[in-house]
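Objective 1.3, modelling of assemblies. Example input:
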Amino acid sequence: MNTYNNSIANKGCVVWFTGLSGAGKTTIAQALEQRLIKDKKQVERLDGDVVRQSLTRDLGFSKEDRDTNIERVTFVAKLLARNGVLVLVSFISPYKKHRETARMEVDNFIEVHVNCPLEECERRDVKGMYKKARAGEIQNFTGIDDPYEAPECPELELMTHKCSVDECVEEIVGYLQKKKLI
Amino acid sequence: MNTYNNSIANKGCVVWFTGLSGAGKTTIAQALEQRLIKDKKQVERLDGDVVRQSLTRDLGFSKEDRDTNIERVTFVAKLLARNGVLVLVSFISPYKKHRETARMEVDNFIEVHVNCPLEECERRDVKGMYKKARAGEIQNFTGIDDPYEAPECPELELMTHKCSVDECVEEIVGYLQKKKLI
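Predicted structure (tokens):
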């Protein structure tokens, strides 16, 4: 594995979206992806649901499986970012430990806390998961019977119950520009 | 996932080394990696042993586990290659089916058959695996009690019992230049 790649044309980075299910991580990541593609940037989005098809199909939602899941995603994000790709990772990633590991592993790690009150996420309940979790049909559901450890000092905090998707995207784009990552 | 990335600075490709254990896949891939880094190319090497640490630690050598292993590696190679990276994959990858899937999934797939007679690989036995396989201590070992399906029309065939590492590397470099991939 090439750990001393010095031929990178563009700086890569990892924009890591963390937050409760239904907070809006994927929605914002998708909108940001479209915006960056329009600007002809090299971008890859690693999303819980998509990645599960190829990379982590064997894994469930137990604590141990989440560990492995995040570990694999971090590995892939690292490879892409060090080759100049803007990597958008959207995972609940409820444990601080995992996000800190990812931060240490990759260059230009940008933690984005997609912050939305549990009540609002549960009200939205896009995938019907909260209902199932409340009914006890699924276990270890973040926010219900598994903790969400909110970031203390994220690079960005987006209040999706107060701001529009476009506003959130602009905030991230502004940050990336300020840091000369785009 | 961005499937219509049209902002690629360089063409990426996947150089896929297949062959028996001990044939010289990793040795050649490492030498090629160094050569490409010297030329300031963006290169990543995905090697069985290294990838197992991060991506596929849960997997053994059963047929099913090999399937999953190759599937994950193909996914990562695809993401890297479509972002302009020269990806060097060295895996025994004994089944034609897997290599054909990889070929369909990625752009610019270059199958390199690292061809060395079983007797010579077994004589080398760098990791002592053949000895263990012959003693029945490990099962499903390619070439011993699991088949190696040799490529019929690989882009390149390297006879490592006849050619030096440098000669093999030059042959690949020549091919990549001819195809305008470097």
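Chain A is about 40% helix and 15% strand.
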